TrEMBL record:
It holds the Pfam family Abhydrolase_1. Keywords: Hydrolase. GO terms for molecular function: hydrolase activity. InterPro entries: AB_hydrolase_1, AB_hydrolase_fold. Residues 20-254 form the AB hydrolase-1 domain. This is Alpha/beta hydrolase. Belongs to the AB hydrolase superfamily. It comes from the Bacteria.
Amino acid sequence: MHESILRRNNVKLSGHGATPILFAPGFGCDQNMWRFVAPAFEQDYRVILFDYVGSGQSDRQAYDPDRYSTLEGYVHDVLDIVETLNLKEAIFVGHSVGAMIGLLASIREPERFRRLILVGPSPRYLNDLPDYFGGFKRKYLEELFDLMDQSFLGWAHFLAPTIMRNPERPELAQELEESFCATDPAIARRFAEATFYADNREDLPKVTVPSLILQCNRDQIAPVEVGRYMHRHLPGSTLKQMEATGHYPHVSHPDEIIRLIKKDLTLQALLQP
C-alpha cells in the first residue's frame, strides 16, 4: 500500500536534513515546476516532490473522476503521502491551488505540518461582490471552459502567456503551455472546475498551522486583494508582497522565492522556544 501511494503520486525524495519540506505544484503543472527552487533546500531539509494524479509522471490508472471532482480528492492524496512517509511538523510549500490543498490538509491533520508557505493562494476565484473580489466574473470562467472544450490546445496557448506574465521571457509561457498540454484534456477540465469553482473562504478560520502568504505583483489569478483577504481571515498568517510579477514566481523569479522562504524559516526557528 505504501509503495503504491509513492508510485501513484510519483513521489521523489532528496536532501540531507531531518525537517521535511514538501513542494506542491499548482493546476496543470507537475513537480518539475519546482526545479529552480527545491534544490536550494536539499542541504538543510528532507525535500519531497510529487505529482497530482493525472499530471506529470503520476499513475494515470489511479485517476478516479469521482474522487477528483473536488479538491478533497487531492487533499486526501497529500495526507496519504505524509502518512506514508510518516511526516510530522513538515513545512508545506504550495503554489496556487496547491496552496489551498495543503491548507485544507492542515485542517484535517494539523500535527503533520509546522508551517504553510502559500504562493499565490486564493480561497475563491469567482467574484462575490460587493464583499469579495476574487478576480473572475462567472461569464469569463464559462468562456474559458467553453474554449477548453472547443480547443484544448487553443485554451493553453491563450492562457499560458496571460497568467505567466513576464512577456520579455516568452520561453516561460511556452513551458507553461507545454505543461498544460501534457495533461489529459478531460482530467484538466475536471481539475479546472474543481479549482476555479471552489469556495474555501469559510475554511480559513479553521487553520491552526501558521503560514506565510507570498503575493505577486500583477497576478491575474490571485490579485493583491485576494492576498489581503487571505491575510485578514487566516489566523497566524504573514503576508509578504513580492517583487515578482505573474502567477509563477518559482519559475520566473526563483531567487526571490528561495530568499523569502529561507528568511521566513530562519526567523521561525529563532522564535521557537
